[in-house]
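quick q for whoever's on today - can somebody do inverse folding on this one?? i tried earlier but teh output was garbage lol. tokens:
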């Protein structure tokens, strides 16, 4: 019985240790836009995701981190995006922000996914919030 308790406790500690720490947007630095990409240039162009470096950082500050499944199941996929690099703490990372106010940050093999429901002003959609 004692072995079972020790094994269970060890597995619980391993599971807790492998959980992703919460995202701290204050650790973002040296953010640069490298490129615009589009899977459908006739439908989604550079003006649909025309953000500056400062606005991209604001996007990640305003957006909430979501699971990949949540992003896939509950948000529209925009066929165009801007992408670039940033520092997250000491790590060099890649990022992408899509015209639909979704995005991700990739640091090594780890991906963090984001969705922003209150970012209409950044994307110049003309929508207003009350």
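ok took a stab at it. sequence:
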């Amino acid at each position: 019985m004692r072995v079972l308790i020790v094994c269970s406790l060890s597995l619980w500690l391993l599971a807790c240790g492998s959980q992703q720490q919460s995202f701290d947007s204050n650790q973002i630095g040296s953010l640069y836009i490298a490129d615009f990409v589009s899977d459908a240039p006739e439908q989604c162009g550079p003006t649909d995701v025309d953000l500056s470096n400062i606005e991209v950082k604001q996007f990640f500050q305003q957006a909430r981190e979501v699971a990949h499944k949540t992003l896939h199941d509950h948000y529209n996929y925009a066929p165009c995006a801007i992408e670039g690099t940033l520092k997250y703490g000491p790590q060099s990372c890649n990022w992408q922000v899509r015209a639909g106010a979704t995005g991700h940050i990739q640091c090594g093999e780890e991906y963090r996914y984001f969705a922003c429901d209150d970012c209409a002003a950044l994307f110049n959609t003309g929508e207003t919030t009350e």
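fwiw Residues 2-18 form the longest helix (17 residues). also Residues 25-115 form one domain. so keep that in mind when u check it
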